[in-house]
């Protein structure tokens, strides 16, 4: 029977993967129609004959029905004309729009039978992006088709307002609707579309779409068709860009847990994104730079937390072509058009300067970066050495085995107002050149706050992350001082290895940061003199910690004394009685 309190996908999660895949095949075929065991057998048999796809091979249809029935996904009743026969119907016959995120995870599970985790994720993110932008492109066309403007001109306008999905050179439509309706080989048609879309949208950072072509050719055409059939049930132009963007980042957050350390380092956790967005509090008409953009989620959520995302210019750099494309897709589905992302090694400095120069700038208003920890710098960066353009301390180069303080100096140098850098906690206390760099930045009085967060906040490590905030407009109350915040409580467990900050904890961190409050066991303002006494160690836990209460609870103490006195009196009476018995025995 249907569990009214359970969603379709909460029930599906309890099924083995093989049953989940078969369920969607049944749903695509039968929808709200009733069927029998024989109908199912005929369906799987005929589809296997037509396609040769092993997804339609099933030894025991009755077992599938039993599994789905126990899960509450199928309801049954007796045939009114033959009481020995059962008639079945799906409990959830429709594909509902609010289930899109769950559909993505089903498709991800579906693909992992044929592809590795990273390729499955890449393909699905690209397909979601492609379907979303295609639906918006056609919605734009429909809105303007009766305007009296020539169709060709509307197409060109949609290319600039949405995405270039019309190839004017070959007079070819490259939208989802045109491609999936083609009678040619679906793998070849889709691969061609992605190659051409990449060429037409190079300036939008989509050159990496060509990476998807090889993945497409690895898939059986029938499996690719199944993915298309399911996504084709949704018109994604009806979703608000913020909502689609949330789906996109939620999917990235979840699949990161499948991808191991590399994938986790590619992504800033949700709690950190929210916290950094609120700490920076970006002003309108600002330029925001992320020199290690990764998936783009951090930069995009910072923009979305501002009052007018469309009035910001987002700039990003990454060494990986796919990262730049992924960040661009993330921005476009989220409705953020004002961005420029490019490939390059920011630690060289020149890629950042070239990007800024494109807009007539030498610095960004804000810099935010969650770089790879303890990154071994490239030989090219090491060769430049003390001539790196952003160094604030040219006399002390950090070890090339850890780029932490290169990232901090880069963020400080290229920011006009504020910068925030996520760091490994070891960066705050290492000796040698790193200590000297900390000393230099403290002497410049631009380090405003250091925030230590709890362990297990990141997908890929249990080590507690640090946020270091640079402020070129530091308030007088923090002149020659640094605000230290040490967060040890206010968390909620997501899994055995992962936690997130509670909303009230984020609120408290932001409130403490903006008001410069000192809260015992949570925050403290530390002078540069005290930092110097501690060898320029910036670890908040060295300065902020919970002390055991020295207050005596008088009532508890009095109660304990009474208990001791009563116990002593009882023992004394028992001792007297025993002594009397001994004396009595001796006198006999």
Question: Could you characterize the architecture of this molecule?
Answer:
- The protein has helices at 8-12, 17-30, 37-51, 61-70, 100-111, 117-144, 151-161, 176-180, 186-200, 211-218, 221-231, 241-256, 260-265, 270-280, 297-304, 321-333, 350-357, 379-384, 404-413, 433-443, 503-515, 528-533, 540-543, 554-586, and strands spanning 74-79, 82-90, 166-167, 172-173, 287-290, 313-318, 339-343, 364-369, 415-423, 447-452, 466-471, 481-486, 491-495, 498-501, 523-527.
- α6 (117-144) crosses α7.
- It contains 24 helices and 15 strands.
- The chain is an alpha/beta fold.
- The chain has four domains: 8-94, Arc Repressor Mutant, subunit A (Orthogonal Bundle), CATH 1.10.10; 100-239, Ferritin (Up-down Bundle); 269-313 and 334-543, Vaccinia Virus protein VP39 (Rossmann fold, 3-Layer(aba) Sandwich), CATH 3.40.50; 555-588.
Q: What's the number of domains?
A: 4
Give the proportion of residues in helices. Answer: 40-55%
Rounded to an integer in angstroms, the radius of gyration calculated over CA atoms is 31 Å
If you average the pLDDT, what whole number results? 87
Report the portion of residues in β strands.
5-15%
Report the total helices: 24
Described by strand count, sense and barrel closure, the largest sheet is: 9 strands, mixed
**Structural class designation:** alpha/beta
The third-level CATH topology of the largest domain is Rossmann fold
CATH architectural designation of the largest domain:
3-Layer(aba) Sandwich
């Amino acid at each position: 029977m249907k569990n009214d309190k359970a969603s379709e996908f909460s029930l599906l999660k309890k099924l083995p993967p093989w049953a989940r895949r078969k369920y969607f095949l049944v749903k695509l075929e039968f929808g709200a129609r009733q069927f029998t065991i024989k109908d199912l057998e005929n369906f799987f048999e005929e589809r296997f004959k037509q396609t040769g796809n092993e997804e339609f091979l099933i030894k025991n249809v009755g077992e599938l029905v039993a599994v789905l029935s126990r899960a509450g996904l199928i309801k049954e009743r007796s045939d009114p004309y033959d009481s020995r026969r059962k008639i079945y119907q799906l409990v959830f016959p429709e594909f509902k729009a609010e289930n899109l995120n769950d559909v993505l995870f089903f498709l991800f599970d579906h693909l992992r039978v044929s592809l590795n985790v990273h390729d499955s994720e890449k393909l699905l993110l690209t397909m979601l992006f492609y379907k979303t932008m295609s639906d918006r492109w056609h919605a734009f066309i429909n809105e303007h088709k009766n305007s009296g403007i020539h169709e060709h001109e509307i197409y060109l306008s949609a290319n600039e307002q949405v995405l270039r999905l019309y190839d004017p050179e070959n007079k070819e439509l490259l939208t989802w609707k045109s491609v999936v309706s083609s009678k040619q080989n679906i793998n070849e048609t889709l691969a061609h579309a992605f190659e051409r879309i990449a060429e037409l949208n190079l300036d939008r950072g989509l050159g990496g779409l060509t990476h998807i072509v090889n993945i497409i050719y690895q898939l059986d055409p029938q499996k690719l068709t199944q993915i298309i059939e399911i996504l084709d049930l949704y018109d994604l132009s009806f979703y608000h860009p913020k909502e689609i963007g949330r789906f996109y980042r939620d999917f990235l957050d979840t699949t990161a847990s499948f991808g191991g350390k590399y994938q986790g380092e590619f992504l800033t956790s949700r709690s950190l994104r929210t916290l950094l967005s609120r700490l920076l509090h970006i002003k309108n008409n600002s330029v925001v730079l992320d020199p290690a953009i990764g998936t783009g989620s951090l930069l995009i959520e910072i923009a979305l937390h501002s009052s007018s995302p469309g009035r910001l210019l987002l700039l990003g750099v990454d060494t990986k072509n796919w990262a730049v494309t992924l960040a661009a897709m993330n921005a476009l589905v989220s409705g953020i058009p004002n961005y420029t992302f490019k490939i390059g090694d920011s630690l060289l400095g020149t890629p950042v300067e070239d990007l800024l120069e494109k807009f007539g700038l030498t610095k960004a208003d804000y810099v935010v970066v969650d770089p790879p920890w303890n990154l071994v710098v490239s030989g090219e960066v090491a060769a430049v050495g003390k001539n790196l353009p952003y160094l604030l301390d040219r006399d002390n180069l950090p070890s090339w085995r850890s780029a932490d303080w290169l990232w901090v100096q880069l963020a400080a140098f290229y920011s006009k107002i504020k910068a925030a850098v996520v760091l490994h906690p070891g960066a705050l206390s290492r000796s040698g050149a790193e200590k000297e760099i900390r000393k230099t930045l403290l002497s410049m009085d631009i380090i405003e706050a250091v925030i230590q967060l709890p362990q297990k906040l990141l997908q890929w490590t249990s080590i507690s992350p640090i946020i270091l905030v640079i402020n070129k407009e530091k308030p007088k109350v923090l002149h020659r001082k640094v605000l230290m915040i040490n967060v040890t409580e206010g968390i909620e467990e997501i899994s055995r290895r992962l936690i997130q900050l509670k909303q009230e904890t984020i609120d408290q961190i932001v409130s403490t940061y903006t008001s410069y409050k000192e809260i015992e066991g949570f925050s403290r303002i530390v002078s540069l003199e005290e930092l110097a006494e501690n060898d320029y160690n910036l670890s908040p836990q060295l300065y902020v910690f919970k002390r055991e209460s020295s207050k005596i609870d008088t009532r508890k103490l009095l109660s304990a004394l009474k208990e001791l006195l009563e116990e002593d009196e009882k023992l004394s009476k028992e001792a007297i009685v025993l002594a009397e018995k001994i004396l009595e025995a001796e006198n006999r």
